[in-house]
Every structure is written in C-alpha cells, then in structure tokens.
Amino acid sequence: MRIDILTVLPKLLESPFNDSILKRAIEKKLVEVHIHNIRDYSTQNQKQVDDYQFGGGAGMVMTIQPIADCIDKLQSERTYDEIIYMTPDGEQFNQATANTLSLKENIIILCGHYKGVDQRIRDHYITKEISIGDYVLSGGELAAAVVSDAIIRLLPGVLNDESSALTDSFQDNLLAPPVYTRPADYKGWKVPEILLSGHEKKIEDWRHEQAIERTKQRRPDLLDENEK
Ligand code: ADE
User: Which atom of ligand 1 is nearest to the CA of 133?
Assistant: First the structure.
C-alpha cells in the first residue's frame, strides 16, 4: 500500500511515521508513506498557498493551484483508489472505514489548514471526506496521522501477532475485554482465577462475556438489539 499525504506543515508528520510500529512497517516495505509539501507546488513568487475568502470573512483559504498540481502529478504516475480530505465536517472515522481503507492500493490524504481548501478542490478531486471527531484541530495533519496509523496497523505483517488486530476493540463491534500480566497477585490485587486456569475455551468464553459487559456499560450504542 502507498499513502501520499499533502500538507503545508510536513514537519508535523515526521514523528508519527518515525517510531515504533509505523516506522517498522515502512522499513519492512509493507507500506510507503510519502509526505508532500504543498508549498513546493506553488507557482506564486512567494510560494503562497492561501488567499482571502471571496465574499469577505475572517480566515484564509487554501488555493486550488498548488494542491491541483500536486494531485495531478501523483495521478499521472499511478491510479489512486481514494483522495481523502481531512475535515471536521467529513464522515466520522471508525474501525469499519479503517478496515475498508486498509484494502486499498494507493490513497492520497489532503490535510486542510486555515479555513480549509477552496470548495472546487473538494468538488473536483476529493472522493472521501473524513473527520476524526466532533472537535476542531488546528489542521488536518494530526487527523491524517491518526487515520494512517489505524490503516497501517491492519496491513498483513505489520503487527507481530497476526491475530492481535482481530482482537482489538471495535473489530467485532465490541470493546476489548480487560487484560492482565504478571504478577498474578500485586499487594492483594488478584488476577481473575479463570485466566490462570489454562482452560482455553473457558478463558475465551470469559473474555467474550467481559467484552459484552464492558460494551453494555460503556458503549451500549455498539450492541445489536439482541445483545442488550
Ligand atoms: N481538521 C481539523 N479538525 C479536524 C477533525 N476533527 N477531523 C479531521 N480533520 C480535521
């Protein structure tokens, strides 16, 4: 898979891809991540990437030209499955969208800034608009990092234990059950007996019950009618 991220603040995206699981995924060539500085594509003398709003109003708008030129260049080199715009008025990101996007070959993610991009970019290039939640960030970069992380960890071979993404919260619309590690008794705080029993089937049943219980308590909206 290849992810191209278009931004006016490329530095903001350096560290998320330079550590831990994402760094390893890139090193193992399971994913290619290319960060493009939109400013490099500006044909203006001052490399300007924004301008005042038509009609007046506070805040600058990202101009069409540098973004369009950058996307045109990328599209002349390969076919993209999605061109995503990160914006608080997009569809809310969730595990189902992460799963779907992890199956794509090439995606572009455009990070918005200031008041956002000229609407004509959204009308003519963007195929999907994603929000990571009902709050406003200073730009789309952190949101793009969140979406990329959620996608990349699902790619085969990225996580050491292949089954571990399958047992994440949300993968079956249930939150994950509680987990414990050594010591089995910390100052009298004991690990549930069942986990020490060695009965695989009983442990699996217990985890499923706990997952349902936790989901009922915290996120009843995730449960089917018959599980409530
Ligand atoms: N840009 C600013 N806020 C955002 C959000 N909540 N989700 C995605 N992109 C954003």
Answer: 6
